[in-house]
């Protein structure tokens, strides 16, 4: 047994309040208390930089901030200054503000592979609009998405493919087909199976593994040869891979792409961008059928667009992407060394690009384990590290990374004990964490 006590009584009480008023106790399933060890789901009071404080008064070094959205750190001064300048000037009007032109021009200068852009509030609206636009311009109904990527949208065309498909007509789900990442032959076979039916291919251009040589360009060529639209979901890769996203790094331009998360550093803003020929179908300067592309009351709130502009300026002027990579490389090396020193290098595994690290917790047979994940998360929390992933923010200091590695080492020592005992149960403190996508509550 651990022999150590770590309790969050105030957080536990607030979690009960959250569940009483909010289905699931959170506004995003990935933030649910079922994703944390039992009774150890901290409720956040506030954050600054790479640190957050819970309502019990505990301070944590935080990773994966805002589900990867807060990449500059909480309450970043340049972002807050830009937002404050707009708050006294009004946030939403009956006609577009000049801020909309400025923000669009700034985005297109940052992502020069895109020719037009439209802003919204969340990633799902942007990806679903990309799908709708692809269907409209191709006259086709099927959507092909990458099965190896975990999330694209809250809308039916995607959620119907997950275990949480309750309430979604099977006819909608039948129009979505999937392909594996990195396999052009499989995509070719999909086009052969559904000739003239696939409106678009949608995928994250990269995740935990780099795209195989020629893969992204091959996808683009396949899509165009078969009359389909290529869509890159750059919600995560945008800014973390480069200021211009993965398309800027790998030199492959999709027809459409979607951005969000890091774009606002926690403020609600997302973007659909792409070729003028396609994007204008959602506008007024064409003679075809109108496409209801994006029309959101709050999509152009001035403070959010100001935040996005400040984020882009900060990334470019301060070299944030390079900093994220350097911090991630330091963290990955430290975690791997700590795991090796405790004899669990084959069980606590760091994966992904340095700016977007995740970790796997494997059992004695090398299988992914929610029980060992629970043990690991519990020990991190006890050491003052809040880390559902190891995704870094630019606000981290090297001392934060080194402290994290020390705590990981302590967690790995307990991990080794559990492996030697053949059962992690005594170190869990209750039920194990659970996957987000599951059929039953």
TrEMBL record:
Give cofactor(s), names only. Answer: pyridoxal 5'-phosphate
Q: Which InterPro entries match?
A: Aminotrans_3 (IPR005814), PyrdxlP-dep_Trfase (IPR015424), PyrdxlP-dep_Trfase_major (IPR015421), PyrdxlP-dep_Trfase_small (IPR015422)
TM ranges are none
GO molecular function terms attached to this record: glutamate-1-semialdehyde 2,1-aminomutase activity
Q: Which Gene3D superfamilies match?
A: Aspartate Aminotransferase, domain 1 (3.90.1150.10), Type I PLP-dependent aspartate aminotransferase-like (Major domain) (3.40.640.10)
What keywords does the record list, in alphabetical order? Isomerase, Pyridoxal phosphate
- Family named by the database record: Belongs to the class-III pyridoxal-phosphate-dependent aminotransferase family.
Q: Sorted alphabetically, which Pfam families does this protein's record hold?
A: Aminotran_3 (PF00202)
Family matches, as NCBIfam families: PRK06209.1 (NF004856)
Which species is the source of this protein? Streptomyces cellulosae
Protein name per the record: Glutamate-1-semialdehyde 2,1-aminomutase
Q: What class of enzyme is it?
A: isomerase
Enzyme nomenclature, EC number: 5.4.3.8
